[in-house]
What does this fold into?
Amino acid sequence: MGDMETVPRHGERRDLAPCNTLHFRPEGALVGDAAFFSRGEECHIFYLSNRLDTPPRLPRCQLDHAVSTDLLHWEGLPPALLPGDPGAPDDDGIGGPTIVQDGEAYQMFYAGTNPQVIYRARSDDLVAWEKDDPLKPVIAPDPRWYVPHDAPVEDPYLLTAWRDPFLFYDDAGEQYVMLTTARLNHGPLWERGCVAWTVSKDLKSWQVKPPLYSPGIGAALEVTEIFKMGERYYLVFCHGETNTTRYRIAERLEGPYRRPADDILLPNYMYAPRTAVIRGERYLIPWVADRIGGTDDYQPEWGGEGYAWGGALGTPQHIRTLPGGGIGLFYPQLVDRLAGEALLDPNLLAQTRAGRGVWKGVSGKLSASSDQGLARSMLATGGRDFILSCEVTVKRGAAAGLILRGSATGEAGYFLRLEPDAGVVALWRYPRPWVVSRPLAMKITPDLDYNRPMELKVLLHRHVLDTYLNDRLVISRAVHDYKEGRFGFFVEDAEAEFAALAASELRE
It folds into this structure.
């Protein structure tokens, strides 16, 4: 086991990262694809970490490890696995893992990167891991249905696929089931992405089965996971072409898996999520992709530099079932324990500074109208990292909403727009780019209506902004240009009322 020489043995805790709070990211690391494993009151995260490559790329990752008791504060532990020595089967890097308890010990199944096959490691304590010796594939794609791992292709990572393992126990079938990202060996090249499944009774002998789900909608269905809530199974996957996280529903593990009316759980660049269970509640936690240039400019052809692989851990989004059998992501109340000093109170609504439109603040409410274009009103106070809530009632017109991290005049900042007529919640950066102008993020939702109070809740921490409408997640986006600023309000060819305004500092 020469490739394990630098991995600490049982009981050792050295080179530990400091305790990180929400949106965990160890210093100097660009991190992504993870597995969560709950043990008692602890939740462990095993994640790919790349500290050396510029620009960052996926190969040559090591598997790092941290632990939390609340999904908010993370303590770094020693690395779990390192790439093998030159000539070893996994010398090109560690791929995504999945962990299962086996008696008093633990087994980890992890993906190789070149070739893509599944390897295994064992641990007695979740800290010190030993790879199989000799290291050899435990599971490889079956060429009857899938592209072989040793197929002669120009791009092995894209054109072959046998990665992102996810392991769970199927009570009904009394067997272990492992999902993997796979590619069919037939059909149009960019429609071969599928979800493979492999079963075992004892974690030793594995039977690769025909695809569990092969919809012909993309080149790869990545970072797949199945969990059961109530009587239904939910298949979650990442759709590479749109960089979104989607889901399907089935009445049986074997399927068929059907698409709900709104199948998008997370928008683009909130990617590669896994679910974590703590105190009986399930959360979906993604990675927030870094912008290479560190700005909001998202148009490479107009000066933007694009996205990197990996970044910081995203917000734990609470998963709940919906009427009709679907699932949605909701405000995680566990974040409330990070709320600190109040940044404002409703009485400030009477002290807004407006330049246009008709504004009136009284008794903790602010009414506003503009019959010609945009009118905004700014508060004298603001914040950098905060939890904010506000009740908004749009009475007529095009749009109304909040200004976050705004300038004193409101000319610059992040504008959170409610557009009932279009059924859209959108996030814009002002001033808007010249020539190319579009929202940073948007969500079409039936939950917008005129003359109905709607609760907006915003969680803004560092460069991650999450917006909830009536408690349900509608926007999740990385924002970079404005680090702090004032709170404000706006109406655009509209009339609206703002009430129940509250904001608290979000503590590290």
User: Anything to note?
Assistant: DSSP finds one helix and 33 strands in the chain. The radius of gyration is 24 Å.
